[in-house]
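tool_call: predict_structure(chain=1)
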Amino acid sequence: MAKILIIDDEAAIRSLLRRRLEDQGFEIIELEDGRAASTVCENQCPDIVVTDIYMRLCDGLETIRELRAAYPALNIIAISGGGISYKENFLEIAGHMGASATFSKPIDWPKFMNKVNELAALSGPEIHFVQ
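tool_result:
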């Protein structure tokens, strides 16, 4: 079972991601910002990190930069619901910084789950999304 670290400052988004991913058999760890992401990755070794870009205390771009430097092979998915004019720019930057995939909120769930399954297969047994 792949382990996924969800980082988002909105409790409702974390809860939605948790429910959707747990329903597919993933083990979930949650953080409300990226300040402890490196410590959690060191201690709990997630297979995938899903991080929001715009967060109040430690934004997702900083989190991606730190995680990519410490864990070059870690699969990172960046998500953003930021302002319409900025969302795509931030997601593009996240991709250049090493995010394995990027998704705008609201999330296209079938595409998101397909990417999660693809990344999980790279780090362990394949988990299939059931629609």
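agent: Strands lie at 3-7, 27-31, 48-52, 75-80, 101-104. Proceeding to next step.
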